[in-house]
## 1
Amino acid sequence: MASQPPLPGIRAVIAVSSAKGGVGKSTTAVNLAVAMARRGKRVAMLDADVFGPSLPRLLGIRGTPHTLDDERLEPMQGHGVGCMSIGFLVEEATPMIWRGAMVMGAIEQLIQDVAWGDLDVLVLDLPPGTGDAQLSITQRIPLTGAVIVSTPQDVALLDTRKGIAMLRKVNVPIFGLIENMSYFHCPSCDGRSDIFGHGGAKAAAKDLGIDFLGEIPLDVALRETADAGTPIVVAAPESAIAATYFQIAERLLEAIDAKADDPSRSAPKIVVE
Ligand code: ADP
């Protein structure tokens, strides 16, 4: 098949996924997207986490998107990153009851009806889990690669293994695993404690033959800055945590360069075993 950009004008699409909710997937996705934008890339994010859209809050964006030419929505902007989220279109407290097909329909509409412009990277914040919603997204959107976020606990890692197996089945390249809430960094004594155990994700990555991209501690400043709408890569760009995000972002950009223009890449195929 001829070489095609994943979507018109969009050079690469990266999915950030996690097998469970609450592991810091969206926080990670936002910090990586903003880090890439700070490295001069044209970056936008699509909140595919329709069950709990959090990108508007994490990117500090309020309001509703404008309509361009009466048809397409203009992405909102936060910290140099474009963003579209179902969260802009419904009240925050509205419960989202979606079946898999509805999720896919909403996401396809969000992708197609938004005037993204030319982008180096579109970062997709996937809904957590490995159900049919995630499967349809990974099958129907030509992803350049996926990043997996996990906490160190065994139970999270067990689910993570399922997520990796799903991505492999649909032939999505896995750029690597990030261990979030890796250890606790105490702001008072500067000490560390391994609340959830530590290093589980690194060991699992080795075992599964995927790259380990880095570890982010459980950190009060990270949570406060994220929840206040200014990601730590902007609020404290000189911090050790921001440095880790910048390093991971650079590795992803290298991985994109290696994959994005690969002529053999096409829409993912399902492998039936
Ligand atoms: P998910 O997308 O996996 O559901 P979020 O990114 O929304 O998770 O994060 C859930 C909560 O955990 C948020 O309040 C966020 O600020 C916090 N959080 C995420 N990562 C960290 C971390 N490394 N240290 C402290 N708090 C974190």
## 2
Amino acid sequence: MVKEAEQITDDVAELVASAHRVAVLTGAGISAESGVPTFREAQTGLWERFSAEDLATVEAFENDPALVWTWYRWRQSLIQAVEPNPGHSALADWQAQLRARQGELSIVTQNVDDLHERAGAEVLGHLHGSIFTHRCVECAEPAELPAPQYNGFEPPSDSEQPPACLACAHGVLRPNVVWFGEMLPAEAFEDASAAIRSADLVLVVGTSGIVQPAASLPLLAMERRTPLVEVNPEPTELTEVMDYSLRGPSGTLLAQMVQASR
Ligand code: BV8
């Protein structure tokens, strides 16, 4: 039976202090306090008539390449304009502390941003790819692009076509994110599964637990009855399998956890 609390309880503090191999699955919520909208929030600007799930598909890109391409380039400019928040920093600090004690903290994220890395953490896997790199839809050749010139805080009033591929001259570029209906990168998924299976504490931070197969990864912790702790202001699809569900913002609660880990 899940135990809910609004701050770190003594038994969670004990789990944190004694943990040597921690696996953390993060979602859009950990970047919310940096100012990056989550997937549940309504879209704005050119995209206000669409949900993120409508836009993050091959069909949407094929149907209106400029609309989807511009959405991603604008999101990339927003991510570049914001900073990691105390939640990202707490995981980076905790990872460094555990490594100094020959332990490990593995971060597996559903996020396509680079805020974990910019906070100084190493990320074991980006399950849904990265918004910062691009490839040709036809020949899959990677393509280097200059940073987008959008104002991340002001959606653009019109859209731009995706650039043509310079390698094959047939295709256009797309972001290296995993769209709905596409397979997740096998290595990232396998590494995430192994990290969760070998952990002595599993954290699930800032995810609604809706998107599969990422949302099923925490269930692997149940194979060895590894303690499961969720950090989210709201209940999620995963709350009922958690041992503890901490109801609050990750920027605050993860900072409390790192204090307890010292
Ligand atoms: C696959 C990259 C199969 C793009 C993303 C029909 C056809 C095909 C597949 C399906 C189908 N029906 C269902 C599926 C499966 C589908 C799926 O799960 N759909 C859902 C909608 C039911 N999954 C897929 O399609 C996956 N692929 O299944 O392939 C296959 C098999 C064989 C052969 C071929 C294919 C691919 C899924 C990946 C999609 N790409 N992102 C982009 O970014 O644009 S997913 C995207 O949405 C994000 O990456 C993220 O993972 C997800 C949103 O989830 P969250 O991260 O949880 O974010 P969310 O907004 O939902 O929640 C935020 C949470 O934060 C909330 O709980 C909130 O309370 C909390 N929060 C807010 N503030 C804070 C906070 N928490 C802490 N602190 C705070 N301050």
